[in-house]
Write a structure and sequence with these properties.
Blueprint lengths: L2 E9 L3 H12 L4 E4 L11 E2 L9 E2 L10 H7 L5 E2 L3 E9 L2 E8 L4 H8 L4 H22 L10 H8 L2 H9 L2 H8 L3 H9 L12 H9 L11 E2 L3 H14 L3 E3 L4 E6 L4 E5 L4 E9 L3 H8 L11 E8 L11 H4 L3 E4 L3 H12 L9 E4 L1 H4 L6 H5 L3 E8 L10 H17 L6 H4 L10 E4 L1 H8 L33 E3 L13 H11 L3
Parallel strand pairs: 1-2, 1-12, 2-9, 6-14, 12-18
Antiparallel strand pairs: 3-4, 5-8, 6-7, 10-11, 11-12, 13-16, 13-17, 14-15, 15-16
Helix pairs in contact: 1-10, 1-19, 3-4, 8-13
């Protein structure tokens, strides 16, 4: 067995690990990046999910908002994201009629007209514009702090300078704020969805506030963009800049033990070889790192999302009469009124798959057809990604296959309620007659990419500042001065951002 020595060893070649490695290598450090799997990327990959079709789907992560322009510029990434003109479309039933709420990314007459069709619609429109104009100012002022050492709560509040906004985002449950500011159940629900994605919580928990905040502060504007070429394009660029900077990437290199002493950190691999380094950065979840170190894993909420990827021959028509190319161009909300979301949470808490499963649906190919071959583009194919809320991992523990099938059925039924064309009728089929659909529960996600209980944030999200009694730092430190967290489990982690990767690298470089 051999021992190799580097300045830095990083566990996990997801996007954050690649970001950290590149910053450190560009600073002159020798860096080895250990990846347990045969390919890099972790959750940030594109795959040919249906082998007979030349379509590269972003299997897990799918949109980009939190990746700061500064990181793109610092690392020289040739990576492009595309804006979606439509922010969202929400079909709903009202007095026996099929209607829909259209919201453009930038407020326009089409959005205003859609609001006017709601009861008290003009008042709701004014409330919407006022609320999000306040959020925009907060996001613009908070975003620069994400790539700096953590401010204290009081310092951040002073930096933002909006006491009322601070109070309703940091101190009061977001559910209370939404029900105070908005009256329409559908509008309330559209606002609430950003507080629940991947989070097993109620609207009336501050945990929802944290999720809401991270979904709205990206790059100071909160816009969610489509990665051109799919998520795999980002990983390819990160690999290019990492290797150009001198990073050594070791595939099929699974860490099984981490030990440290006063001088070095030692990582034992599954093949018996050892890597020693001055510092270790972990892009694995904190629970995984604790297991490697032989310490007690931290407790956290479990993953609460189901992902369904589909390839369709054409977009289905909607009962509301809206143009499918507009409706699916943004985020398509199903069963996501405020009441439906809270009801779904309560059902999940009682151990049931929600009868009206809340869904967020995205069509990558409307904004970026480059993920398809020319043939599929010309034939009108599209991808649809369904993201199911309030589907915590525990719902699938007893009989995973059976529960996966039941959850998928609930999702399809929920979607079909608003379609003229049942989704089954437009799904592409492989040569053996199988529909092009794949379903990933939290347990599937854990098995595939190692996220404990399928938690896409690795552990509970935290506000992007520290309390007064907490030690200064970057939010990446552990109880061992030689070990740092560079993944989503860091403070200010979560989402496709590169922020914890950058911050862990800066924390190491600040060491004397």
């Amino acid at each position: 067995m051999t021992t190799k020595k580097f300045d830095i060893v990083i566990i996990g070649a997801g996007h954050n690990g690649l970001v950290a490695a590149t910053y450190l290598a560009k600073a002159g450090k020798s860096v080895v990046l250990l990846e347990a799997n045969a390919e890099i990327g972790g959750a940030t990959t594109s795959v040919r999910a249906f082998p007979e079709f030349d379509a590269r789907l972003s299997r897990y992560s799918y949109l980009v908002s939190l990746l700061p322009d500064q990181i793109v510029q610092d690392l020289g990434l040739r990576f492009k994201t595309l804006s979606r003109n439509v922010a969202s479309y929400t079909p709903f039933h009202h007095q026996g009629k099929n209607q829909g709420l259209h919201i453009s990314r930038i407020w326009d007459e089409k959005t205003a007209a859609s609001f006017r069709e709601l009861p008290n619609g003009e008042q709701e429109a004014k409330a919407w514009q006022q609320f999000y104009s306040e959020i925009a100012v907060l996001a613009e002022r908070m975003a620069p702090s994400m790539l700096k050492p953590l401010l204290t709560r009081s310092e951040m509040k002073r930096e933002i300078g909006l006491d009322q906004v601070w109070d309703y985002l940091m101190e009061k449950p977001i559910g209370e704020v939404i029900t105070e500011r908005f009256k329409n159940d559908v509008v309330r629900g559209v606002v609430l969805t950003d507080a629940l994605i991947g989070t097993d919580t109620s609207a009336f928990s501050l945990q929802a506030n944290k999720c809401f905040l991270y979904h709205l502060i990206g790059n100071g504007n909160g816009e969610w963009k489509v990665p051109q070429g799919g998520m795999g394009a980002l990983v390819q660029e990160l690999e290019r800049v990492a290797t150009s900077a001198g990073v050594s990437i070791a595939l099929n290199s699974r860490a099984v033990k981490v030990q440290s002493d006063s001088k070095e950190v030692h990582v034992t691999l599954s093949d018996g070889n050892t890597i020693s380094a001055n510092y270790l950065l972990s892009n694995a979840a904190p629970q995984v790192l604790a297991t490697l170190r032989g310490t007690t894993p931290p407790k956290s909420l479990e993953g609460s999302q189901m992902k369904i990827n589909m390839l369709v021959k054409q977009l289905p028509r909607l009962k509301s009469g809206a143009d499918s190319r507009d409706a699916f161009a943004g985020t398509f909300h199903i069963n996501e009124s405020f009441t439906e979301l809270e009801s779904a949470f309560q059902q999940a808490q009682s151990g049931q798959i929600p009868s009206k499963l809340p869904l967020e649906i995205y069509c990558h190919s409307l904004t970026d057809p480059s993920i398809f071959s020319a043939k599929l583009q010309s034939e009108g194919y599209h991808t649809l990604t369904l993201f199911g809320l309030h589907t915590p991992a525990r719902l699938f523990d007893a009989d995973h296959d059976k529960q996966r099938e039941a959850a998928a059925k609930a999702a399809i039924q929920s979607l079909n309620e608003y379609l003229v064309d049942p989704i089954e009728s437009v799904l592409a089929q492989s040569s053996d007659g199988q529909p092009t659909i794949e379903v990933k529960t939290p347990l599937d996600i854990e098995a595939a990419i190692g996220l404990p209980r399928g938690n896409i944030f690795h552990r509970d999200l935290a506000f992007p500042f520290r309390e007064q009694d907490e030690a200064p730092g970057w939010g990446v430190e552990t109880d061992d001065p030689r070990i740092f967290i560079c993944g989503a489990g860091a403070t200010r982690g979560g989402g496709v951002s590169g922020i914890p990767g950058h911050n862990a690298a800066m924390a190491v470089l600040a060491k004397k």
